Amino acid sequence: MARFDHFLAIDWSGAKGPRQKGIAAAIAVAGSGPPVLIAPGRNWAREDILHLLREDLPANTLVGMDLGIALPFADCDAYFPGTDESPPDARSLWAMIDQICADDPHLEASSFVDHPQLSTYYRRSGGREGQRFRCDGAEHGRGRFRVTEHRQGKMGCKPYSNFNLVGAAQVGKSSLTGMRLLHQLGGAIPVWPVDPLPSSGSVIVEIYTTLAALEAQRSAARSKIRSCEELDIALKALGCAGVGESGPIDDHSSDALLTAAWLRKVADEPARWAPEGLSDKIARTEGWTFGAV
Questions:
Q1: What is the span of the domain harbouring residue 25?
Q2: Would 123 be classed as within a structural domain?
Q3: CB 63 within 8 A of CB 271
Q4: Could you give the CA distance from residue 80 to residue 133 in angstroms, rounded to a whole number?
C-alpha cells in the first residue's frame, strides 16, 4: 500500500518583499494523472505557504520544499565554528534564525546575514566574503557543503553552499527564510530526516528540483523547462500524464509540476529514505535532500 496520498512540491524564494514571483506550488494525487498548479499565476507570500501547510494541507501529503533545511555542520563539527553562538542541532538553528529575524517582515532573513558575528560565515553581495566563509580544509572556493550536497555533486548536480548569498543560483537566502517557516510550523508536520519518518500522516522533505529533472532524462545543464511541450516530455519519462497545454511556462511552475510527479514516483522506494551517509547525527544537524542517494 502506498505511504502517501498527495504529493506537494513547493518552489521557494528567499527574495525580499511581501509577494514572490519565484514561489510556485503544485500537487499530484496518487495514481498517474497530471500534477496541477495550486493557484496558477498567483504571487505567493511566504506567509501564504505557511498557512497552506498549517491549515489547508490535504491529509497524508508528502511535501517537498526546494530549500536547504540546515547549514553545513559535519565539516567543522559546528554551524559556526569559533563562536559560542553555534546551535547544537537543526531545530535549535531554526529557532535562532527566527529569533534574530523576528523584526524582519515577510519571513525575510536580512538581520541574520547582517549580524555582526554571523555575517563572517557568509559570502554576500558586493564582493563581501566573510573571513569564515571557507572552513579549514575546504577543497574548493564555493564554500562549505553539507554531506548531502557532496552526494548531489556525485550524481551530476552542481550544488551551491547555503553560506553563499551571491548569484542567481544561490540558495542561501531561500534556505534561511525557509528555516524561519519550519520553526514557525512548531512541529505541526514532521521534517525528515530531522524528525524520523512516521508511519502515517504528512511529512516535509527538502527537495532539489534538478534531481527530479535528472530522473526525467534531462541533464543538470538542461534542468530548467520553459515550455509545456518540454514539460510533457519530462512528465512522460516519469510515467506521468502530461499537462496537455502548449506554449511557454515559467521555470518555477515547471519545477514544481515536475517535482510533484517525481515525488509521487519515488516516494515508496525504501532507498530514498535510507541514503548512504545519512547517520543519526547528520540527520539531526544537517538534514538531507530527499532523493540524493
A1: 6-69+206-273
A2: no
A3: no
A4: 10
